[in-house]
Amino acid sequence: MLxxxxxxxxxxxxxxxxESLPSATSSAPTTEALPVVGPADFPVPPEARxxxxxxxxxxxxxxxxxxxxxxxxxxxQPLRDLGPDCGECLRIxxxxxxxxxxxxxxxxxxLTLNDVxxxxxxxxxxxxxxxxxxxxxxxxDSAGTPLDEGQPAAPNVFGGIDLxxxxxxxxxxxxxxxxG
Length: 180
Known about the structure:
Layout: H1 2-7, H2 53-72, H3 77-82, H4 87-101, E1 105-108, E2 111-116, E3 120-122, E4 125-134, E5 137-140, E6 154-166, E7 171-179
Antiparallel strand pairs: 1-5, 2-4, 3-4, 4-6, 6-7
């Protein structure tokens, strides 16, 4: 009965649609209006650029993907750009840059979020924890020769992240990050 009632408005006898549409008004910035944040070929996505719990969680998911991406290159600048006051972010970025300067690379180490707590919002700040799987990782030289003992896979390590909303960038930035 409900289906019939809903479809009844689609009969040929229905009045013609209005020739004009109401103007769209929205306080949310459009994707075109947002400045590019992150690498030009891997920018922070629009869903991670809202100042709410959904945006904070989307930013965390982007951040984990960015860590994986930058480890594979390796290059640290995007981590510095999105975590300029985050000590661990700067340490990871430096490791990536040093590996690249020496012609080395990381093999493995992919990160996969297992679970994420609901972000706690307090004004312009968001904080939350997560469980993450880290695949085994090892630093190798250009010939593929291991340069360290590496780290074994860790199936579920606790992590945490603190974010701060940047009104200028219309994006979250990392203020604290840690795994393990």
